[in-house]
Amino acid sequence: MHEQGEKNRYNLPLVMSGAIVGGGRDLVFRAKLDLGRRVAGAALAVIGAAIALQLVRAIVANRASTHADWRAYLPVVLVFGTVALAFLLPGTLILLYRRDVRVDPENRQVVERQTYLGFGRTRSHALSSFKKIVLARRLIKRRRSGRSVGSSHARRSYPFFVVELAPAGGKPVRIVTEQQEEPAREAAVKLAALTRLAVDDEVERERAREAAGLDGEGDTAL
133 or 215, which is more confident? Predict the structure, then answer.
């Protein structure tokens, strides 16, 4: 199978899954965090907040007894504040990340909007620039604990399914990411009905190749 490995900075098996939202004649694919992502983001944010809280408490208690100037605590604040932010910012970013893809057939546009910590970025693509819809299986690879980097068993693979709008050339626009095949296939069908684009079903095509290969092996054995 044509499997594309994707690196995940926080070693999570899936980034997010898609929820389809009806918007008049438009079709909106709204990303939602999966459970693993929510737990990881919350854990990072809580650890960062706890470090920051302990830092503030320690400084207040120390100053109450020593009456030291606030500037004396700057080195401590810089060191432990940086550690706290190293946990707090990624966790908050994970929890507050939002992504919507709106398919607007009336204006013949695909509008992709991403929001990071309240700051939004919007990209518009002409619907005519896309030639097909791709339904495919991808992989996220993560290193196994206790395995050497060069070992063939050093990484675990987590499969997931994607729906993408593919242009004639250039990078495709990802519409949906799902752990299960059926929700991704449903999204591909709805997208095809709205855009009139053909679905390139890589999942079924690979199944057919695998079945043909197995049949060939069985005939050889006979």
Answer: 133
Give Cβ neighbours of residue 51 (< 8 Å, ≥ 6 apart).
80, 83, 84, 87
| Residues in Cβ contact with 106 at an 8 Å cutoff, skipping those fewer than 6 apart | 25, 26
**Rounded average pLDDT over 186-207:** 91
Q: What is the pTM of this model?
A: 0.66
**pLDDT of 43 strictly over 90:** yes
Bridge pairing between strands 98-104 and 26-33: antiparallel
Helix (H), strand (E) at residue 27: strand 26-33
CA distance readout (Å), 167 to 48, 61, 107, 164: 42, 61, 18, 10
In the chain, count of helices (H) and strands (E)? 4, 10
Whether 7 contacts 56, CB under 8 Å: no
Quick one: pLDDT at residue 96? 86
Dmax of the chain from CA atoms?
89
- List the chain domain ranges: 5-30+124-221
Q: How far from the centroid of its chain's Cα atoms is residue 85's Cα?
A: 22
Question: Over 90: is that where the pLDDT of 57 sits?
Answer: yes
- Binning pLDDT at 50, 70 and 90, where does residue 21 land? low
End-to-end CA distance of the chain: 26
C-beta separation of 96 from 115 below 8 A: yes
